[in-house]
Amino acid sequence: MLPEIVVTHKASAEPRSITLQEGFTTFGRFRESVICLNDPGVSRDHGAFSLRFGVLVIEDHHSLNGVVMDGIKVKRKVLHSGDRLNVGPFEIYVKSGSVDPLAIAGNEGQAA
Questions:
Q1: Which of 23, 33, 62, 108 would bridge with 28, disulfide CB 3.0–4.6 Å?
Q2: Distance between CA atoms of 102 and 63, rounded to whole angstroms?
Q3: Quick check: 3 and 58 in contact, CB under 8 A?
Q4: Using CA of residue 85, residue 90, residue 95, residue 99, what is the dihedral sign?
Q5: What are the pLDDT digits (tens) for 16-53?
Q6: What's the farthest any 2 CA atoms get from each other in the chain?
């Protein structure tokens, strides 16, 4: 199952649900960003999500306002289901995040 995030702007009650794909998913104010967060509080190239081998990571690209999780700016962080982040006036809720490696190991050898 691919990770899913829900993005909500503080001034809007209209959440956007986004399924993240393997590799890099850029976000920022720049129109060419995969996830465009159009607000002056967001840098043009704010950051990216990366998904490799079931592990979802958020990376800040030296943005001015940063990526905030639990009140602390983070540069790089593994994300799990239920995590909440702030990017400028946007809240990002991780609906489904990194796959638990123990769950994968427990399913090895079982017939599909």
A1: 33
A2: 34
A3: no
A4: negative
A5: 999 999 999 999 999 999 999 999 999 999 999 999 99
A6: 51
pTM of the predicted model as reported, rounded to 2 decimal places: 0.86
Question: Phi and psi at residue 102, in whole multiples of 5°?
Answer: -70, -35
**Helix/strand/coil (H/E/C) assignment for every residue in the chain:** CCCEEEEEECCCCCCEEEECCCEEEEEECCCCCCEECCCCCCCCCCEEEEEECCEEEEEECCCCCCEEECCEEECEEEECCCCEEEECCEEEEEEECCCCHHHHHHHCCCCC
Q: For residue 60, what are the β-bridge partners?
A: 47
Q: Which two tokens stand for residue 83?
A: 């995590």
Question: What local confidence, expressed as pLDDT, does residue 1 receive?
Answer: 84
